[in-house]
Amino acid sequence: MSDCIFCKIVAGELPCSKVYEDDEILAFHDIRPVAPVHFMLIPKAHIASLADCDERHQALLGRILLLAPRLAREQGLTNGFRTMINTGRGGGQEVFHLHVHVFGGGPLRPM
Ligand code: AMP
Ligand code: ZN
User: N or C: more exposed end of the chain, with fewer CB within 10 A?
Assistant: First the structure.
């Protein structure tokens, strides 16, 4: 996806503050953090949103979710954290490349 900013980050065409990388997953800090620690995990492959996933993405989604607490701990979020996946315009999604927000380290509003 040539016009996708997260694909450009994956390709190294745009910079990021990297938290983690493997062959399938990249994690980096959000440029507009909503908490003292705020990063996102994304699949390297372009998937527009959670609503575009199917059974073929099951293992990848599982890997992303299982990585979240490990990276959160490594980023200092030893007391807990919030995960968020905005899906579609109605869900407040702004970047249409699937990403899992992980944030915390300060007071969070109750849901
Ligand atoms: P969402 O509303 O879930 O689509 O969130 C998109 C997030 O991506 C927002 O929190 C933005 O601050 C963040 N974001 C946009 N561009 C970049 C970028 N170049 N590097 C890091 N985070 C970004
Ligand atoms: Zn993309």
Answer: C
Nearest CA owner, ligand 1 atom 16: 31
Q: Which residues of the chain have pLDDT under 70?
A: 1
| Residue 61 beta carbon below 6 angstroms from any ligand 1 atom | no
The amino acid occupying position 7 is C
Q: Cα Rg for the chain, rounded, in angstroms?
A: 13
Contact 67, 27 (CB under 8 A): yes
Locate the ligand 1 atom nearest the alpha carbon of residue 96 and give its number. 4
What single letter denotes the amino acid at residue 5? Answer: I
**Going edge to edge, which strands form the sheet with 37-43?**
18-21, 25-29, 37-43, 100-104, 82-84
Q: Indicate yes or no: pTM above 0.85.
A: yes
